[in-house]
Structures are given as C-alpha cells and as structure tokens.
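pipeline: protein-struct stage 2 | run 1193 | LacI family DNA-binding transcriptional regulator
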Amino acid sequence: MTGMTPRPNASSRQRGTRGPAPTSVANLRDVAARAGVSPATASRVFAGSPLVRPDTRERVLAAAEELGYVVNGLAQAMMGRGRRSVAFVASHMIGPTFAAMAAGAESVATEQGNLFIVSTTGADVTRERDLLETLREQRAAGILLAGSTATGAAVDRRIAEYARDLETIGARLVLCGHPAVPGVPNVLTVDYDQVGGVRAAVNHLTAAGHRRIAFAGYEPDKTTPLQRLRGYELGLRDAGLALDPSLVVECPNETEPAEHGCRDLLRRTDRPTAVVGLTDGVAIGAYRAARSLGLAIPGDVAVVGFDDMPLVVDLTPALTTVRAPFWEVGVRGARLALGLEEATGHVELPTELIVRQSAP
C-alpha cells in the first residue's frame, strides 16, 4: 500500500535522534567494590553513621562520584534513615495567608534538616485520603493539614483515622487554622482567635454607633465561617443587638460571589451601615458592591475584613481588618509535628484588630 509511513524498527530507532541521557546504573555493590569495602560499610557511609573511619568514608564517596551513584533518599527515609519530609496539605492555596502559614512551617522543617512538601487536595476527600496514605508510606516526619474543613462526626472520624495511621510510623498530624476536634484528643490543632477577632471588629463598629451590621461570607457546615459567624453573634450580643438573619450573606470565600451578595444587601432601603467580611477577599467584594451602587466607604457603609493581607493597606480607603498570625501558626504547627515542643492538644494564638480608614 502507498501513502503510509513504515513503522521504525529497533535498528532505525537506534540510529535516530538521541533521547535523554541514560541515568547511572551503578548500585551500592558497585560502589563498595570500587572502594574496596563491604556493601554494609558503604551503606553506613550513605546513612551518615559515625562508626565509619574518615579515610574509608572519603574512599566510598569518591567511588560513588566516579560511578555516578545517586543515593535513593526516599528508600532511606522509608527505612528510617536519611532525610524525612514535613508536608503542608491544604484544600487550596488561597492568597498570601496560606503562603505565610506554609513559609512559617518550612522555616522550622528545613532548619531541622527535613524536606518540605506543599500539596493541595482541591477539597476532594478521596484525593486527600490517598495523599496522606502516600505520605505515610513514604515515612513523612509530620503532616500539617491546613485551613477550614467541613464539620460533622464523619469528618472527625476521618481526621482521627489519619492521626492513628501516622502514629504507626512515629509521625504526627497537626491541624493548622482549625479549631480543636471534639472527642479526638490525639489530634493536635493550632489556631488563632477567629471568634475573638470578629467579635472585636463588631465591638469597634457598635462603639462607633453602627446598629445594622452585616456579615458576608457565611458557608454552613465549614469550620472557619462558623467560628467567625459566632464572633459576629457575640459582638452583636455585647451591644444588646439581636441577630438578623437577613443581614448574613451566604456566599463562598471569593470576591465575585461576595460582590453579588453584598450588592443585593446594599441596594435595600433598610441596608446595613457596616459589613464585616469573612476575609479580606470578601471585604473587597463589599467595596465593589458599594461603589457599583454609588455608596461611599465609610460615609455610607463601613467595611471590615479579616486576614490583613498586604494589599489591603493600599485600597482606597485602606481596609480596617483583623490581623491573624499565619506565620506563627505554621511555625507552631511544624514544631508540634516534629516533637520540638510539648503537645498540648490545642494552641490558640491571639488576633489583632487593625483600624484603618474603611471603618475608623
């Protein structure tokens, strides 16, 4: 038949363009033979054993370099030797808040000679379970599970299962940016005062005379929105105000949905005079909604956020927000995961209200 390109045979493939350079096929026995030592001695060299004489160590390392031998670090870690890893796992890496938390954890992990791994699950439970099982098989030194999760007994059981599985390899699970898990004492948690932070924001607004204060960014059955809504409720209660469910905007923690939800709220004749956002991103949605309706901030509506992302000081007007110690959460989480400080079950760090022009 014509018009068909013949398939290359083995010899023609060998004569074609070269592919990637082959990796070294030298193994530990080859290195030991070249250095004139036993495989056991060579293995002790690569494991960092102090029992090997300096001249023997130099001879083995020189032989490895000559042969292009590369130590299988993963295999060493799985046998309890060599460098282990600390993993930072989140559903999504949202903005600089998670980056700061991960950076704090990394500073501790690398200082202790560990590898540091960042991975996301996309909020997929199956993917999360598979990832943690893989990390357990690879003998991770510790895992930080960061951010908000769903609530309920099934979630608590799953987290407890992760913690038990990691204990079998001498590793710890630490939840970061997460409240204590009721009835699961073997799970360590490091959080910041989310309830108190929002409560302080509402207290600040009521002290300025606001009585119709909205909360934007609520999602039912998720730990972070539930904690921050609780702070909102307590702040209202402090001022003798009843919770008005119509002033709670239910939307994801994203700017665009928050803008739509706040616009519907702010175009009402009985609109609120202040909005507290679940996060700074939600607060930016409130800014956009107010401006689309011709409302001035803070003259017509005051806005408060949560997180104190670096960009919010450059907004016009600069955003009043709650500052959370994300770096410190990562540091404490990593220290607990690696056993560098005594496990206390639950650690809660303070937050701080930063007053700027959006809610003076």
